[in-house]
Amino acid sequence: MKIAIIGPGAIGGTVAAWLGQDTDYEIYVCTRSPLPDGLAIELDGDKITAAPTVHTSPDDARPVDWVLSAAKTYDSANAAKWLPALTGETTRLAVLQNGIEQVENFRPFFDPARITPCIVDIPAERTAPGRVLQRRAGTVIVPDGPDGSAFAALFAHTPIAVTTTDDFASKAWAKLCINSAGAVNAITLQPSGIARFAPVAGLMRQIVEECAAVGRAEGAVLPDTIADDVVYHYATGDREGVNSIHADRLAGRPMEVQARNGVIVRLGEKHGIATPANRMAKALLEASMIDVHSL
Ligand SMILES: NC(=O)C1=CN([C@@H]2O[C@H](COP(=O)(O)OP(=O)(O)OC[C@H]3O[C@@H](n4cnc5c(N)ncnc54)[C@H](OP(=O)(O)O)[C@@H]3O)[C@@H](O)[C@H]2O)C=CC1
Ligand SMILES: CC(C)(CO)C(=O)C(=O)O
């Protein structure tokens, strides 16, 4: 089994290292930044390491059985530049991204019938190139079907629980409810525990209620308690947890604003649903990336 992982960041690095614990797999990591010392992942005080083959140019890559793309949503088109070299007749692509548009983001570059969208719930932070703090073993959800089952089987030897669902859209919107609220962490530059501060909990609740309303208009089935559930998740989880949009802002990287809050505003407009809290979150995060001298 040959598996290529595009983007060995927090999620790509974690997944590549865990997959690499099965020595029957040939793991290839496709990176744009050097990875001088392989991969080392810390989970629950233990460390696992892996030394996959590292490609820094598509010229070196060859067709594999599975490609896993773990680049950010805004890097999808660049990540896709690896695909022609990695793709053979039976190659399948798994897209490990937040948001609800995993297939859409790669549709221009890969046969959508062979794309497996993944909902990743693995809190992980990159601490240095190839170094990741994985805060929980975590889960991945993929659609029912032969590709979903084959993808899940890849992880059988890992602590990451991969399951399939017959209602992927609802699961993706439920995850977006969690991620939409994470904008508040990126805006305030405060980790998860800031949700214990009542005014922040209230703002997160409003962001999630808007997200859930738009998701339901799109056909998602979401529990009535989802806003309270999400706030509880942030308030009672790891107080120091830094979600990925917060990590992006801290590192001065672009942020997945469009995929996480922008999409709620955009689809809210389509359905005539007001989304003022998400609109404000989007504006503030976009403003934080602007050089005022360019205005
Ligand atoms: N971190 C987390 O806890 C979670 C993240 N997610 C989602 O997973 C996705 C990935 O997030 P995360 O791992 O945090 O992001 P990171 O920024 O840590 O990793 C992204 C990686 O993609 C690489 N990359 C970007 N473009 C290319 C390219 N053209 N070729 C090769 N590599 C490329 C980046 O390279 P470079 O090193 O040069 O920047 C980086 O290593 C996002 O959609 C995120 O929302 C989902 C659940 C949890
Ligand atoms: C909320 C969290 C940590 C869950 O895995 C996540 O999706 C992210 O950091 O982007």
Automatic annotation (TrEMBL):
Domain Ketopantoate reductase C-terminal: 167-286
Pfam families associated with the record: ApbA, ApbA_C
Catalytic activity: (R)-pantoate + NADP(+) = 2-dehydropantoate + NADPH + H(+)
Residue span, Ketopantoate reductase N-terminal domain: 3-144
EC number from the UniProt entry: 1.1.1.169
InterPro entries named among the record's database cross-references: 6-PGluconate_DH-like_C_sf, 6PGD_dom2, ApbA, KPA_reductase, KPR-Related, KPR_N, NAD(P)-bd_dom_sf
UniProt KW NADP keyword: yes
UniProt GO cellular component terms: cytoplasm
Enzyme class: oxidoreductase
Keywords per UniProt: NADP, Oxidoreductase, Pantothenate biosynthesis
GO biological process, one term: pantothenate biosynthetic process
Gene3D superfamilies assigned: N-(1-d-carboxylethyl)-l-norvaline Dehydrogenase, domain 2, NAD(P)-binding Rossmann-like Domain
The protein's annotated pathway: Cofactor biosynthesis; (R)-pantothenate biosynthesis; (R)-pantoate from 3-methyl-2-oxobutanoate: step 2/2
GO molecular function, one term: 2-dehydropantoate 2-reductase activity
Protein family: Belongs to the ketopantoate reductase family.
Functional summary from the UniProt entry: Catalyzes the NADPH-dependent reduction of ketopantoate into pantoic acid.
The protein's name in its UniProt record: 2-dehydropantoate 2-reductase
Species whose genome carries this gene: Aquisalinus luteolus
Lineage: Bacteria, Pseudomonadati, Pseudomonadota, Alphaproteobacteria, Parvularculales
